[in-house]
Specification:
single chain, mainly alpha
Length: 356
Amino acid sequence: MQQSASDNSAQSRSIGRTVVQLIGYLIGIALLVWCIRLAFSEENSAQLATLKDAPAQSLILLLMLSLASVGVNGFLFWIALTPLRRLPLADVLWTNALATLLNYLPFKLSVASRVLVHARKHNVSIPRIGAWFASVGAVMLCTLVPFSAVCRYFGNVHTQSVLLGLLAVLGCLAATLVFFRVLKAKLPTANNEQTPAGLARLGMQMTGDGTRDLATLLSSPAPVFVGALFRLVDLLLLASRMFIAGKLLGIELHMEHAIMLASGHFLAGVLSPIGMVGTREAATVALATAIGVANAENVASLPLLVAASELPVLLVLCPFAVLFLRFDRLLAVRKMPIPSETLAPSTDETPDEART
């Protein structure tokens, strides 16, 4: 009875999570529709008309920058795990391309695809995958949040704010390294599962493999600092796409505004509990108004063009990713090996019974 009740409770929670994710996705779709209607309004029709005469080299540059961004993000995932494992770089790059496309769909399919590939193809344990993804997120937050906060405080992006923003990033990364190095020293090892009293008081009685892996990843200076550097490179790539898209649409957008819009655009997509579809576009429009972009009401078409320049790249890459990663094997049901004792004759048989 207890087992049946717990199964029903788990099933109810699973259905509840699915419903919540579906509602969140529909909210994101509604936000996206709002942005599309705003972009195609009569006031913005002149912007879209300029795309007909857009120079081919600018459109090609947008596509190339989108391709570079996919590669940089894949490298970020690869470098983050190097203190524990060195996975084939090509595998991680292809997985990231596929996961980036699946970000446009509901039900966390992006995360599920990463887990499927790395758990089945590379035999990375689920706790380690969780620690890996958490470390990527931690480095991202330690990089973009301080940098964006400093630039927002000064109200613009210029030499002083950039330098102070970089100092804030370095300080945040250094504090993270020190904290997790101390934590790693206090964590129980595989041979000693007793939790130190200090950690017990912090509610860390359940320190397992995932916590140890996270402490190892975030106490390794080289991957953390290289990851932060490439996160800033990715921010610059996205800002460049924003800037070029603004030029094509006839929007007067300075590069400093493009950097701030890119930061908000990216963080909104990553941190939104309802997914990135719609939230990135709505956040970009809201942020453009907040930072004083000229004609901010016309910015709705900007994130749409940025997304439109990314989707063709992903749609071309993903079939190759599926072939390269051999998804037919990854999705195949694995047969459980037959225990050897079931193949041996029963020892309870008498010699006469065995002969008959």
